[in-house]
Amino acid sequence: MYLPATRDYFLFRVDYTVSGSVHRFGPNKGLISATMYIIDYCPWSGRLLPGSLAHTRSRVAAREYGCTFTPSVLTPDDLLMTYPIELVGNENWWIKRNIDIRRRPKLNKHNWNRHDKRPQEKPYVDYRDYYHRDPPPGVWRPPDDQVPTHFCAGMFEIHKDIGWPMTYIPWTREHGIRRLPVDRMMEIQPIRMRKIDYCPFCGTKLPSSLKAEWQRRIAEAGYDPNDEDLPEDFLSDRWWKNNGL
After folding, report:
1. Integer angstrom CA distances of residue 77 from 34, 88, 167, 242
2. Neighbours of 121 (CB within 10 A)
3. pTM of the prediction?
4. pLDDT (0 to 100) of residue 108
5. Alpha-carbon span 82 to 243, nearest angstrom
6. Are strands 174-178 and 193-195 parallel, antiparallel or unpaired?
7. N or C end of the chain: smaller count of CB under 10 Å?
């Protein structure tokens, strides 16, 4: 998602909870909250994205309008009460002032390996801690022995939280951003995603997809991808690791 007023690119999640930065009534009049996680690189080109102008906007508001109060969590109502309408809602305020501060690469910002730096931590949460039963299909994650092929600090934090709309499919070796209608709870939605080619947090090129090869080998074995009796090796990363792919 893109927020033009601050030039932020981010992952966006909606939770049916009472915590978060934005509260509105969702399906069945349940309270929902929206939360954002800033990304630094384009997931499809790997290019470094322009820098956020959130702090620049605060300085402009203070210098030109005398607005010095910046709440820690800005809801739409907070923004309208804090900032003049010119600084809320679109990019006109920074275009008109010829503001074009670009983010410079921060080397090694997310460049640590989970196994080297945090060996005591598990990459995924135990869903029974949340649901006290097996996880619903909408929050499925691979087992601990099938961790994503790329695991920088940003990816680690995202995969550690069941609410963020990113997933990894080990048998096709694909990372992706989930496609989720906001009017339905994530927990009950099937895993549909748009594959990404670069890490949005550190810009690393991700391994190529093995989906076509997976489908070919399944067909050679006499199965269909939708068969319920697929061999277990085809539903894990074992088939491509054992074949040196």
Report:
1. 14, 11, 32, 55
2. 10
3. 0.79
4. 46
5. 59
6. antiparallel
7. N
